[in-house]
Amino acid sequence: MRIDVVTLFPDFIRDSAALGVVGRAQERGLLSVHGWNPRDYATDNYRRVDDRPFGGGPGMVMLAEPLSACLAAARAADPAPARVIYLSPQGERLTQAKVRELAARPRLILLCGRYEGLDERFIAREVDEELSIGDYVLSGGELAAAVVIDAVGRLQEGALNHADSAVQDSFEDGLLDCPHFTRSDLAGTEGVPPVLLSGDHAAIARWRRQQSLGRTWLRRPDLLARVTLGKADRALLEAFIAQWRA
Ligand SMILES: NC(=O)c1ccc(NCc2ccccc2)nc1
Fold this sequence. Notes:
Elements: E1 2-6, H1 10-17, H2 20-27, E2 32-36, E3 50-51, E4 61-62, H3 64-76, E5 83-93, H4 96-103, E6 107-112, H5 120-126, E7 129-132, H6 142-153, H7 164-168, H8 201-219, H9 221-224, H10 231-245
Parallel strand pairs: 1-2, 1-6, 5-6, 5-7
Antiparallel strand pairs: 3-4
The protein binds 6-(benzylamino)pyridine-3-carboxamide.
């Protein structure tokens, strides 16, 4: 998968994508991330990328021309067709289901706005979809782009060493993740649920599933409402709730 990012801060994108799982996915050739700076495509002497808004008011708006030229250069860098995504508070909320859909695509071009955002005419002409990583405003779209790159990059086949961990992640099955425990020289096994030390893998799987169901019921009933539970899950959750209310 190839991801191009149009941003006034290409170093931030390149440096953050060089780290961890995403950096390794790039080394393994599973993913490539490229930064493109609209300022390199500004034609005036001052290399302007923004200007004052029509209608007055505070802030600046990013100019369409440098963005269009920059996007054209990014598109031309690879023959693969790209989905052009604009990160903005006005976008569709990003969910794990959306991440999975994006991760299956051959190429994404992510547009990062600064100031008050992009000229709407550019959005109408060039943007396929707007995405928001949450209901809050950042000083630029770069952190939102980095979130998309990480969420999509880690799902590339071969990016994660223990593939299962991607499946057991929160939200993969619409539920929150169960608690995790590991060896601690300090506390030993104190406070670790005995079932996890039992070696009974069926019981451990049941316990983990019950914790995921129970935590989702307690913390995110909105998510639980969207999940259709089978008979076994319903029994596990009812037992969790009974224990909780005891
Ligand atoms: N919630 C998000 O995903 C998000 C994305 C970008 C952003 N800031 C840049 C920007 C500001 C205003 C208009 C368009 C882009 N803040 C939050």
